[in-house]
Design brief:
Aspartate Aminotransferase, domain 2, 5-stranded mixed sheet, binds ligand F0G, 3-stranded antiparallel sheet
Length: 454
């Protein structure tokens, strides 16, 4: 059959409140044209993020009821730990309330002034937590990873030559080599198994531990199965174990590939590091058998980890984004190719060449998707990255808009609707105008800046 159906039935629904373009125009004005300022009830299709927005399964909701809220030694923790170790057999698994808490704990121990931490591309919270300790975060993704048109199958790969020369020149300052799978900041692009193994081998040759930011590990493993020579016959579970077999530790946000609405963990093999991390955890998150979570959250994650490696689910998941991507390309909408695992990244600067980068083409596209269709997407461009520490402003490398797909939430007709809204945007693109920022905070302005249409 040609149609890949959603591999689930729907037992519980959340109604979508229908709104009109006129209504949405006034809601936009009230939010000063910042989509973070909208109430989510006023959004029809929310593609702001795939993080924490998954639909949990009946089995997960059942597990929630089984959650045991004991302060210490809860059976929920042991079920969680067993599910993590089944896929990622690290000696120590330390729960946290989300991914950035695991990062903060890790880098508070191994970061610090003068340290240098390479990765393919650090996600912004990872970079933020590294830099907050005074250390330097270095991105070493392959050149194809910077080229939106390159069809390289593993655009998340790290440049092994540059990794090796960094370790040769600054090795004494490198406490860990990291790798983000999939590479979110680079468009949700996967890393090949060969590249993971090679990067780990280089790290180990220089005596450095190798850590994986595993947020979207299952999507990455699916891409390995589909695209990497010799991997097609292996199960996703087997590939996942292989990916983590070369690592000495990991950070994780369970809000992505664990189908949970909250949660994360830090896992390590090193006993001394684990002891230091648990001491820090007790200070900032909670006792080591719950981290920052309720027992019921740990149970939801345990079941989510069993469900996420289901190949029927992963086929549908990755295909949904590819489908939207193919149809956008057919409309002449430029996108980052190939389509990543969790999102379609639209090149707003390419679509709206008459809007200068400092007039925020990404913001123009994102606000018009909302006004015309009630879709909320996320600007990843000059609004997000253009603000300089000295208060000046410069154009970001690219002006993208990310359509991040929540897991198991939307159906094929929602995807078709998104494409239709783009059709409308394309028909009117010459009439779209840029924006001016009327007020902004000193840092991370995209969350709260106020805009005025030009
Ligand atoms: N690492 C990656 C690759 C991520 O994508 C994220 C979150 C984190 C770490 C931090 O995890 O949110 O649980 O603290 N990404 C979300 C996003 C926010 O929308 O891409 P967290």
């Amino acid at each position: 059959m040609r149609t890949i159906i959603e591999p689930f039935r729907i037992k519980s629904v959340e109604p979508i409140r229908m709104t009109t373009p006129v209504e949405r125009r006034s809601l936009l004005e009230r939010a000063a044209f910042n989509l973070f300022g909208l109430a989510s009830d006023d959004v029809m299709i929310d593609l702001l993020t795939d993080s924490g927005t998954s639909a949990m399964s009946a089995a997960q909701w059942g597990a929630v009821m089984r959650g045991d809220e004991s302060y210490a030694g809860s059976p929920s923790f042991y079920r969680f730990e067993k599910a993590v170790k089944n896929l990622m057999p690290f000696r120590h698994v330390i729960p946290t309330h989300q991914g950035r808490a695991a990062e903060a704990i890790l880098f508070s121990i191994i970061g610090g002034k003068g340290q240098v931490i390479p990765s393919n591309t650090h996600f912004d919270t990872t970079r933020g937590n590294i830099e907050a300790t005074g250390a330097k975060a270095v991105d070493l993704v392959i050149a194809e990873g910077h080229d939106p048109a390159s069809l390289h199958p593993f655009k998340g790969n790290i440049d092994l030559g540059r990794l090796e020369s960094l370790l040769q020149s600054e090795g004494d300052s490198v406490p860990v080599v990291m790798m983000t799978v999939t590479n979110n900041a680079g468009g949700g692009q996967p890393v090949s198994l060969a590249n993971l193994h090679a990067a780990a081998a280089i790290a180990h040759r220089f005596g450095k531990p190798f850590f994986i930011d595993g947020c979207r590990f299952a999507e990455n493993a699916w891409f390995i199965k589909c695209r990497e020579p010799g991997q097609a016959e292996r199960s996703v579970e087997d590939i996942v174990r292989d990916m983590f077999s070369v690592a000495d530790g990991m950070t994780m946000s369970a809000k992505k590939d664990a189908f949970a609405n909250i949660g994360g963990w830090l896992a390590v093999n090193d006993d001394t590091l684990a002891a230091a991390a648990r001491n820090r955890l007790i200070l900032t998150e909670g006792f080591p058998t719950y981290g920052g979570l309720a027992g019921r959250d740990l149970d939801a994650i345990a079941i989510g980890l069993e469900e996420i490696v289901d190949e029927q689910y992963l086929r549908y998941r990755v295909r949904t984004n590819e489908y939207i991507g193919e149809r956008l390309i057919a409309l002449g909408v430029p996108i980052v190719r190939p389509v990543g695992g969790h999102a379609v990244f639209v090149d707003a600067r390419g679509l709206l060449p008459h809007i200068a980068p400092l007039q925020y083409p990404g913001q123009a596209l994102a606000t018009s998707l909302y006004e015309l269709g009630g879709i909320r997407a996320c600007e990843i461009g000059t609004v997000m990255f253009g603000q300089q520490p000295d208060g000046s402003e410069k154009a970001a490398d690219m002006d993208l808009v990310r359509l991040a797909m929540p897991r198991r939430v939307y159906t094929q007709s929602h995807a078709d609707y998104v494409v239709e809204v783009f059709e409308e945007v394309v028909a009117r693109r010459d009439t779209l105008r840029g924006f001016r920022i009327v007020s902004q905070p000193p840092r991370l302005r995209h969350f709260t800046a106020r805009f005025e249409p030009l």
